[in-house]
Specification:
There is one protein chain. Helices cover 15% and strands 49% of the residues. It contains 2 helices and 9 strands; from the N terminus they run αβββαββββββ. 15% of the residues are buried. The radius of gyration is 21 Å and the shape is elongated. It is mainly beta. The strands form 2 sheets. It has a 5-stranded antiparallel sheet with strand order 2-3-8-7-6, with no helix packed on it. The chain has a 4-stranded antiparallel sheet with strand order 1-9-4-5. The protein has one domain. Strand 4 and strand 5 form a beta hairpin.
Length: 142
């Protein structure tokens, strides 16, 4: 019984440790702040659904990052960074309440922020600027 327990604990430590292929000192983390003005949002209202989107050039999103890196994005609500995707409650000036699903998509050289209303009807126009932080983790070890 002791041998089985010892083997299980040894296997746990063996598989939880980072191997030579991914040493932490070879990761580069770079953060970018993206301020999206209210007039930068475009409405998509077709068979893909109803949502707002805003696309931004981001040269840091190279093929190398797409192949071996990680891209994270956060929405800044004025007090906290909220990792995307993020669902937040929202109330319009007339009292109408709904939820917004805030998410992002990316491809080589470009990132797109997307806001979808939970009721899937044509949303109110976005009248506020929104702030995002994009973190690119790149593995420079080959």
């Amino acid at each position: 019984m002791k041998k089985i327990l010892f083997s299980a604990i040894a296997a746990l430590f063996l598989f939880s440790a980072c191997t030579i292929e991914c040493p932490e000192e070879h990761l580069i983390s770079t953060s970018y702040l993206v301020d999206v003005p209210a007039n930068s949002w475009r409405l998509n209202d077709n068979s893909d659904g109803v949502y707002f989107w805003s696309a931004w050039n981001m040269p840091a999103l190279t093929q190398e990052v797409l192949d071996r890196g990680v891209v994270l994005a956060y929405f800044w609500d004025g007090a906290h960074d909220n990792m995307l995707p993020y669902i937040r409650p929202y109330m319009e000036q007339d009292g109408y309440q709904y939820f917004e699903n805030i998410r992002f998509d990316y491809e080589r050289g470009k990132i797109t922020f997307i806001i979808e209303p939970n009721d899937f009807v044509e949303p109110y126009p976005i009248t506020r600027a929104m702030n995002f932080k994009v973190v690119v983790l790149q593995n420079i070890y080959h």
